[in-house]
Amino acid sequence: MAGSFRCEDCEAPARLVVDECLVCDRCGDRRIAVATGWPVLPDPAPPEMVIDADGREHRIVYRLLRTPGGITALAEEQGALPGEGYELSVLGPHDASCDQLTARIRERVRSAVEHRADGLLVFPGDAGAVPTGTSPAAPPGDAEEDEEMDDEALIHAWEEMDREAVSVLQHALPASLLASAPAAELASAGARLRAGLRSRQWPFMIIGQANGWRRRQDIPSADEELWLQAAGALVSMREESGLPVEEEASVIALQHADWLGAVLGLVRGGVGTSAEPDDLARAIAACEEIESDVADEEEEAVAVAAAFEVVLPVWEAVGAVDADRRLTALGLWGLPRALAQAWGGSIDAVVVTHRTVEGAPPGTRFILTEHYPTAPPSKRS
């Protein structure tokens, strides 16, 4: 199999590894269907040529994959140089309409290519940093252009950055990331959160206000959902948090790249890694998947560290870090998921096992069917 890059089932070109077997998308989907009961997916949209604002042609190839988090429609530029090209994705639930997902991903491709000639996203796994101007660290366009954008365009631009940041997170996570939450720690944290929210003690009141939990029935009933929303309360605030104005402003000023660099640094270091603000700033500066001014500007590093000083009491309250400000097993599992959820995505949309499979070509996606939910009887093929 080494160097052949051919499907073990049908000899077609392979870019998927399912349970350590190198297969094509179609045969991989059949294996997933057998293991989980979900129906086989239809064929993806045919490749198409999209022309950017400079008149350059981009050949886009589409894929449909059933991932643990749902059905993912992928668009990848074919023939681009290493470190360049487009890669976009749209995630829907396991019973989503594939026609609708395909329409959405094609719309995103046309919008990205036609309006942003420098490229929307560089796949971070092998290519290094997202290039300047398209990084999650900075909104597209300069200040004058932003002022001219209407509210809808601004919201769309920010949502695009959310999606890009989730994609960076998905592909950059280390193999040590826990696949499931530590049950005892999650249950304990859930009980502690509910008690704190009822008492409206600090910092639990901050968590509730930032999430917009005005009534007791607004609080998620499931421990996992409660924890993720609580841990990500300050990442993308739904309402004013109740923090002092200066402190809230410092947290709002944190860019996608700052959150990514800090959390990736923590989970790469593993349980026990320091979450002291200065250490988080250093992790941001060292993160290869992002570009940030933290590495070059001392004033920016100080501001980012000050913002994370505000965030840390929330992370300690949920049990993501301990009293010594060191990452816990619960934080290792949950902080990346809390980030992704705050940005409207899920890291479980693509599961990368980081296992070595001889003959797997660059860009291959690795999947274990044990991570999938089984289909309910009404949805079985």
- Helix and strand content put the structural class at alpha+beta
Q: Beta fraction of the residues?
A: 5-15%
Rg, rounded, reads: 21 Å
- Low-pLDDT runs of 5+ residues are 117-146, 349-357
Globular, elongated, flat, extended or rod-shaped: what is the shape?
globular
H/I helix tally = 13
Distance between the termini: 31 Å
Helices and strands, in order, run as EEHEEEEHHHHHHHHHHHHE
Q: pLDDT average, as an integer?
A: 79
Helix content: 40-55%
Order of strands across the widest beta sheet? Answer: 3-4-5-6
Describe the structure.
The chain is an alpha+beta fold and 381 residues long. The chain has 13 helices and seven strands. α6 (183-199) packs across α8 and α10 packs antiparallel against α13 (329-342). The longest helix is centred in the middle third of the chain and has 22 residues, at 151-172.
Layout: helices, strands, pairs:
Elements: E1 16-18, E2 21-23, H1 25-36, E3 48-51, E4 57-67, E5 70-78, E6 87-92, H2 98-115, H3 124-127, H4 143-148, H5 151-172, H6 183-199, H7 204-211, H8 223-231, H9 245-252, H10 256-269, H11 277-286, H12 298-318, H13 329-342, E7 365-367
Parallel strand pairs: 1-7
Antiparallel strand pairs: 1-2, 3-4, 4-5, 5-6
Short précis:
Helix content is 43%, strand content 10%.
Features:
381 residues, alpha+beta, four-stranded antiparallel beta sheet, 13 helices
